[in-house]
């Protein structure tokens, strides 16, 4: 027991006998020197990559995969762009039955929304109606993809329109290729078509490790919509 009545084992580690304490501090110093050297090397590598990345042009970004976070990521980028005063537009190819929070917020911030008239395609089960609705939104998308004043376009859930063949792939590729040089486009949705992945600059696949829904937890306001 010590003066303050704490057992030795409860004392903080730096209350070691002098010799052990200086050994420990030597070891700490070596570790921190090693860390510093490693970080310096990393910084040099990153700096040189930053220096060689000089190209500036609009990006095509794809967020695909089965995990949660694709639309969240797309809307996050739109919010980021709007925060910098950029002009953004959103096309939603599969509209949920609920008013989504991001639309309410971003429309108030001046973001143009083009929303497919039908609900989830598996709800309507009317293929012809879905195709007509998809084409209607696509006409608006073509305008957005030809508009020099729009800096960022989010094509949310567009991948399904291509996998169901509701939209013509060649037409989509052409519109993407001919868009203004500095316009960024984000495409979200599962199973993105290979042709779009090949032409994209950045592609991320969100993998599902687990999802609350699998445990019977219903979609939550502010989290899922
Ligand atoms: P979010 O809009 O939450 O970013 P997402 O765009 O990645 O999701 P979508 O396939 O568009 O995924 O899913 C829309 C809805 O389905 C959301 O409510 C989302 O929480 C839910 N969801 C997404 N991934 C899964 C999954 N792996 N299992 C069950 N539900 C999911
Ligand atoms: Mg989504």
From TrEMBL:
<dbReference type="Pfam" id="PF02572">
    <property type="entry name" value="CobA_CobO_BtuR"/>
</dbReference>
<feature type="region of interest" description="Disordered">
    <location>
        <begin position="1"/>
        <end position="45"/>
    </location>
</feature>
<keyword id="KW-0547">Nucleotide-binding</keyword>
<comment type="pathway">
    <text>Cofactor biosynthesis; adenosylcobalamin biosynthesis; adenosylcobalamin from cob(II)yrinate a,c-diamide: step 2/7.</text>
</comment>
<keyword id="KW-0067">ATP-binding</keyword>
<keyword id="KW-0808">Transferase</keyword>
<comment type="similarity">
    <text>Belongs to the Cob(I)alamin adenosyltransferase family.</text>
</comment>
<dbReference type="GO" id="GO:0008817">
    <property type="term" value="F:corrinoid adenosyltransferase activity"/>
</dbReference>
<dbReference type="InterPro" id="IPR003724">
    <property type="entry name" value="CblAdoTrfase_CobA"/>
</dbReference>
<protein>
    <recommendedName>
        <fullName>Corrinoid adenosyltransferase</fullName>
        <ecNumber>2.5.1.17</ecNumber>
    </recommendedName>
</protein>
<dbReference type="InterPro" id="IPR027417">
    <property type="entry name" value="P-loop_NTPase"/>
</dbReference>
<dbReference type="InterPro" id="IPR025826">
    <property type="entry name" value="Co_AT_N_dom"/>
</dbReference>
<dbReference type="Pfam" id="PF12557">
    <property type="entry name" value="Co_AT_N"/>
</dbReference>
<keyword id="KW-0627">Porphyrin biosynthesis</keyword>
<feature type="compositionally biased region" description="Basic and acidic residues">
    <location>
        <begin position="23"/>
        <end position="34"/>
    </location>
</feature>
<comment type="function">
    <text>Required for both de novo synthesis of the corrin ring for the assimilation of exogenous corrinoids. Participates in the adenosylation of a variety of incomplete and complete corrinoids.</text>
</comment>
<keyword id="KW-0963">Cytoplasm</keyword>
<feature type="domain" description="Cob(I)alamin adenosyltransferase N-terminal">
    <location>
        <begin position="31"/>
        <end position="50"/>
    </location>
</feature>
<keyword id="KW-0169">Cobalamin biosynthesis</keyword>
